[in-house]
C-alpha cells in the first residue's frame, strides 16, 4: 500500500516539476527570441531613419518635380523614431568642428548635455524631457583626441535608446507578471501536493485517536466495576484473608485505581481532540474550589508530611468551568505533592494581574521539589512525557496530567508556564483572562 502511494506520488511530482521546467524553458526561449528580434528591428529602423534623413533633399526635389508645385521646405519631421546616432566634435575652446546633429526636437537637450559634460565621465545614460512633453533616454560617450600631452578635441557620441528602454521595461513587467503567475501556480500545486501527503497521515491520526477514544470508553465501565468489586470484597472480608491475600487485594485495588485514572485521562484527551468537551462557564468561588481540592489531597500531603500553604483570606471569584478548574488545580497541586520530598512546603497563591493584553487571574502552585530541567520545560506538557524516567519510576503517573492541564487553560484562552530551577523547586503559573 505504502509503496503504491510512493510510486503514485513520484509520478505526480515528476509530472508537475517536468511541466514547470518545460514552461520555464519555453518562456525563457521566447524572451530571448523576442528580445533579439526587437533589438535587430530597432537597428534596421534606425538605419532607415538615417538614410531617410540623409536623402531628405533628394526626396523633396523629386516630389516637387513630380507635382510641379512650389519648392517644399526642408524642415525635418518631428521626433518620431528613437535609435538615431549623433555626434559633435568640439575643440578645446568649445567650438564645434563637425557635427551630425539629432532630429530638431532632440537637438537642444542633446546639446545641453554635451556642453555640461563632466570631463571625469567617459559615458553616461540620461533622460531628457522633449518640447513635445515626451521623455527620451540617451546614452552618451566622450572620447578625447590628443597629440602627445596636448588635448586637441573631444568627440561626443550619443544614441537615443528610448525604444530599447521601453522594451526593457516591458520585458521587466512581463517577467514580473509571469513570476507572479508562476508563484501562484507553485503555491496552488504545493498546497495540492501537501494535501496529498498529509491526508493519509491525518486519516491515520484520526483513526488512532478514534481507537483510543473507543478503547478508553469500552474499558471504563469494566474497570469501574472491577474497582468497586474490590472495594466491596475489602469491606466484606472481616479479617478472613491471610496477610498474603490481603496484600494481593491491596495491590489489585491500587493497580485497578491507577488503570481507571489512566483510562479517564486518555478519554478526556480523546474527547478534547474531537472537540466533544464543552466548557460550562459560570461565576464561582475559586477559593472554595481550591479548599475542596486541598481536602481531597490532604491524605497524600499528610502521608509525606508536606505542609500546604494557602492564604484563603481573600475570597476570589472566577468566571470559568468549575469542574475543569478543579481538575486543573488537582493536577498541579497533586504533582507538587508527588514530586516534592517529605517535610517540604507547597504554596498555592492567587492574584489579579494586569498586562498589555488585559486583566488576568493568576494562579501559582510552587514547591521545593526536584525542579524541571530547562530543556524539558516545554516537553512536560506533551502527552506521555515524563522527566527522566529513572527519577519518575517510583512515582505514580502516566505523563498525561499536564497535557490535560494545558488543554483546560487553553480552552479558557489562558496561558500556562513553569518557572523552575533544578534541585530548588518549580512554580507552575496559570493566567486566566477575566472577562
Ligand atoms: P505525571 O503523571 O507523570 O505526573 P504530568 O503530565 O502531570 O504527568 O507531568 C509530566 C512530568 O513533568 C512528570 O512526569 C514530572 O517529571 C514533571 N513534573 C510535573 N510537575 C512537577 C513538579 N511539580 N516538580 C517536578 N517535576 C514535575
Automatic annotation (TrEMBL):
EC class name: transferase
Protein's UniProt keywords contain RNA-binding: no
Main location group: membrane
Gene Ontology cellular component list: plasma membrane
GO biological processes: cellular response to phosphate starvation
Top-rank lineage group of the source organism: Bacteria
Subcellular location: Membrane
UniProt domain Histidine kinase: residue ranges: 214-435
PANTHER family in alphabetical order: PHOSPHATE REGULON SENSOR PROTEIN PHOR
Protein name: histidine kinase
Reaction it catalyzes: ATP + protein L-histidine = ADP + protein N-phospho-L-histidine
InterPro entries, alphabetized: BphY/WalK/GraS-like, HATPase_C_sf, HATPase_dom, His_kinase_dom, HisK_dim/P_dom, HisK_dim/P_sf, Sig_transdc_His_kin-like_C
EC number, UniProt record: 2.7.13.3
Species of provenance: Pelosinus propionicus DSM 13327
Entry's transmembrane regions: 12-37, 172-194
Database matches in PROSITE patterns: HIS_KIN
Keywords carried by this UniProt record: Kinase, Membrane, Phosphoprotein, Transferase, Transmembrane, Transmembrane helix, Two-component regulatory system
GO molecular function: phosphoprotein phosphatase activity; phosphorelay sensor kinase activity
Amino acid at each position: 500500500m505504502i509503496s503504491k502511494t510512493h510510486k503514485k506520488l513520484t509520478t505526480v511530482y515528476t509530472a508537475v516539476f517536468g511541466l514547470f521546467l518545460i514552461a520555464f524553458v519555453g518562456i525563457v526561449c521566447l524572451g530571448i527570441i523576442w528580445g533579439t528580434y526587437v533589438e535587430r528591428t530597432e537597428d534596421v529602423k534606425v538605419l532607415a531613419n538615417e538614410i531617410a534623413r540623409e536623402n531628405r533633399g533628394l526626396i523633396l526635389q523629386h516630389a516637387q518635380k513630380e507635382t510641379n508645385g512650389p519648392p517644399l521646405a526642408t524642415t525635418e519631421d518631428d521626433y518620431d523614431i528613437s535609435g538615431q546616432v549623433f555626434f559633435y566634435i568640439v575643440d578645446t575652446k568649445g567650438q564645434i568642428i563637425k557635427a551630425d546633429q539629432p532630429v530638431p526636437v532632440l537637438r537642444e537637450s542633446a546639446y545641453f548635455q554635451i556642453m555640461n559634460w563632466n570631463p571625469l565621465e567617459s559615458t553616461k545614460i540620461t533622460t531628457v524631457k522633449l518640447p513635445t512633453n515626451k521623455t527620451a533616454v540617451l546614452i552618451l560617450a566622450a572620447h578625447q583626441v590628443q597629440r602627445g600631452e596636448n588635448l586637441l578635441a573631444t568627440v561626443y557620441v550619443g544614441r537615443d535608446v528610448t525604444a530599447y528602454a521601453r522594451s526593457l521595461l516591458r520585458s521587466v513587467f512581463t517577467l514580473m507578471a509571469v513570476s507572479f503567475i508562476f508563484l501562484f501556480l507553485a503555491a496552488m500545486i504545493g498546497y495540492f501536493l501537501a494535501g496529498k501527503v498529509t491526508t493519509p497521515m491525518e486519516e491515520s491520526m484520526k483513526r488512532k485517536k478514534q481507537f483510543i477514544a473507543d478503547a478508553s470508553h469500552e474499558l471504563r465501565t469494566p474497570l469501574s466495576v472491577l474497582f468497586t468489586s474490590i472495594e466491596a470484597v475489602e469491606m466484606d472480608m472481616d479479617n478472613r484473608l491471610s496477610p498474603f491475600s490481603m496484600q494481593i487485594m491491596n495491590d489489585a485495588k491500587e493497580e485497578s485505581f491507577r488503570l481507571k485514572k489512566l483510562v479517564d485521562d486518555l478519554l478526556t484527551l480523546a474527547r478534547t481532540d474531537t472537540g466533544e468537551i464543552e466548557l460550562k462557564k459560570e461565576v464561582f468561588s475559586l477559593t472554595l474550589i481550591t479548599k475542596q481540592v486541598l481536602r481531597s489531597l490532604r491524605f497524600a500531603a499528610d502521608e509525606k508530611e508536606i505542609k500546604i500553604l494557602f492564604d484563603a483570606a481573600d475570597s476570589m471569584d472566577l468566571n470559568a468551568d468549575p469542574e475543569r478548574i478543579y481538575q486543573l488545580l488537582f493536577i498541579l497541586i497533586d504533582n507538587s505533592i508527588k514530586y516534592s520530598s517529605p517535610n517540604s512546603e507547597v504554596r498555592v497563591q492567587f492574584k489579579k494581574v494586569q498586562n498589555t493584553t488585559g486583566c488576568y487571574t493568576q494562579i501559582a502552585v510552587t514547591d521545593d521539589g526536584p525542579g524541571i530541567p530547562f530543556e524539558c520545560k516545554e516537553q512536560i506538557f506533551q502527552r506521555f512525557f515524563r522527566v527522566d524516567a529513572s527519577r519518575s519510576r517510583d512515582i505514580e503517573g502516566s505523563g498525561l496530567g499536564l497535557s490535560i492541564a494545558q488543554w483546560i487553560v487553553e480552552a479558557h484562552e489562558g496561558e500556562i508556564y513553569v518557572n523552575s530551577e533544578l534541585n530548588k523547586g518549580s512554580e507552575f503559573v496559570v493566567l486566566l483572562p477575566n472577562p
